[in-house]
Amino acid sequence: MTLALDGTDRRILHLLQTDGKASIQEIAGQVALSTSPCWRRIKRMEEAGLITGYTARLNPKLLGLHALAYVFVTLMDHREDTIAAFNRLVQTEDRITECASVTGESDYILKIAAKDPEDLEHFLMRGILASGLVRASHTNFVLRRTKPTSPWPIL
Hints:
Layout: H1 7-18, H2 24-30, H3 35-47, E1 67-75, H4 80-92, E2 96-101, E3 108-114, H5 117-128, E4 134-141
Antiparallel strand pairs: 1-3, 1-4, 2-3
């Protein structure tokens, strides 16, 4: 079910995606509300599940993560237990920063961060591929991130 949003809600969402540390007072001032109605709107969107949390965006290179890759994965089969086991594996691996089930030749696409290419190879060979769940994989290294993070469009 989609939550009904008006223009003020949309402006609040845009501001929160741009600066999750903004205070209620700052947001309220920018959307021409007093703090109480602004807080109630944000609380309503949190309770409805539209706002799912607040995070800090980190610079991966300053964390020593110099290799980023998209790995396309094809499972051995499509049985429920295989899919469940793969999903559990994905959830337990911090190096996998995103996972999506996709259409096309592969079953999943993984976004994986590693220290360097050798570290990524080690992770793939001893983690993902050694699991016995994957029939094939195809890896694309990221050369440069030109739009690393962006807010969701508020249409």
